């Protein structure tokens, strides 16, 4: 017997109500459920589908792949959305709306770190050229330094945003780099040294609002640059260079095999 026509949104609301009644989930969890299911509903409607019974495994596969790519290809993005789909369609199955759970056959993806594929030399050069053409404004000087810290020096995104003024050596000749095994001080190659000096002389002083803020990299409001802000800078540089922003990340900017950096002893260490 066919079910009377009902909107996709109606069953999303019923599912969320049932979750609240039985589990009292956190507000952030409910928001994640709602956003994922609303995106799935729009995904189906764009294909002319109006009933949850029409959601096939192949359609859910396409949806999960698209959402994972949108979130940068992270295995956690796949797993988070798969968990929502499994729970939602299990609810629909228990309510007699679907005969089987179409999300039950998908495997979880390993959270192991994926292999990093560095940018090809030609694309790296295009980014370098785009950075050199940035205006000599405080933000332009900062963005050029960010590219040097990652693409030339090999810093990770987290290391770059963790830098503070006290990490900069005399005359900007070296830099103390935070790391998993403790900080290390490294002598800066001339291009990075020049970029750092220009930023410290003409960029950061114009961005700074509060003398108590010690972060090296500041946003346009004078606060410490966040990881999200750094990603935004990299994406903006990609667009300037005519590269697809979605294919670029700070990880891919790092040198293919690292650089022979000249580590210096920290205070109290012996050479």
Give a quick summary of the entry.
The chain is mostly helical and about 270 residues long. About 50% of the residues lie in helices and about 5% in strands. The termini are far apart.
Name its key features.
about 5% strand; disordered C terminus; mainly alpha; 3-stranded antiparallel beta sheet; about 270 residues
Judging from the principal axes of the Cα atoms, what is the shape? elongated
* Unreliable segments of 5+ consecutive residues: 262-271
Radius of gyration, in Å, reads 24 Å
Number of strands: 3
Strand proportion, as a percent range, falls in under 5%
What's the topology here?
Elements: H1 8-23, H2 27-45, H3 57-70, H4 75-94, H5 121-132, H6 138-152, H7 157-162, E1 174-177, E2 184-187, H8 190-207, H9 227-240, H10 250-253, E3 262-264
Antiparallel strand pairs: 1-2, 2-3
Descriptive report:
With about 270 residues, this protein is mainly alpha-helical. The protein has ten helices and three strands. The protein has helices at about 10-25, 25-45, 55-70, 75-95, 120-130, 140-150, 155-160, 190-205, 225-240, 250-255, and strands at about 175, 185, 260-265. Helix 6 (about 140-150) packs antiparallel against helix 8 (about 190-205). The longest helix is centred in the N-terminal third of the chain and has 20 residues, at about 75-95. The radius of gyration is 24 Å and the shape is elongated. The model is unreliable at about 260-270 (pLDDT under 50).
């Amino acid at each position: 017997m066919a079910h009377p026509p009902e909107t996709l949104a109606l069953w999303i609301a019923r599912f969320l109500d049932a979750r609240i009644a039985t589990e009292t989930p956190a507000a952030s969890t409910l928001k994640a459920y709602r956003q994922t299911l609303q995106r799935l509903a729009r995904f189906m409607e764009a294909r002319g589908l109006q009933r949850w019974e029409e959601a096939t495994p192949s359609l859910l596969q396409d949806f999960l792949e698209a959402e994972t790519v949108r979130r940068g290809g992270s295995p956690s993005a796949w797993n988070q959305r798969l968990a929502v789909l499994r729970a939602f369609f299990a609810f629909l199955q228990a309510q007699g709306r679907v005969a089987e759970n179409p999300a039950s056959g998908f495997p979880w993806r390993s959270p192991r770190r994926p292999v990093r594929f560095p940018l090809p030399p030609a694309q790296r050069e295009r980014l370098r050229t785009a950075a050199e053409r940035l205006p000599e404004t405080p933000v332009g000087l900062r963005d050029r330094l960010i590219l040097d810290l990652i693409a030339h020096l090999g810093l990770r995104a987290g290391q770059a945003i963790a830098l503070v003024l006290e990490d900069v050596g005399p005359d900007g000749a070296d830099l103390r780099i935070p790391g998993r095994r403790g900080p290390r001080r490294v002598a800066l190659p001339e291009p990075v040294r020049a970029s750092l000096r220009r930023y410290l002389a003409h960029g950061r002083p114009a961005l700074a609002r509060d003398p108590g803020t010690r972060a090296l990299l500041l946003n346009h409001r004078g606060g410490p640059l966040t990881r999200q802000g750094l990603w935004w800078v990299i994406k903006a540089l990609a667009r300037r260079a005519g590269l697809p922003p979605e294919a670029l990340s700070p990880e891919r900017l790092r040198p293919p095999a690292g650089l022979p950096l000249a580590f210096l002893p920290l205070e109290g260490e012996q050479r």
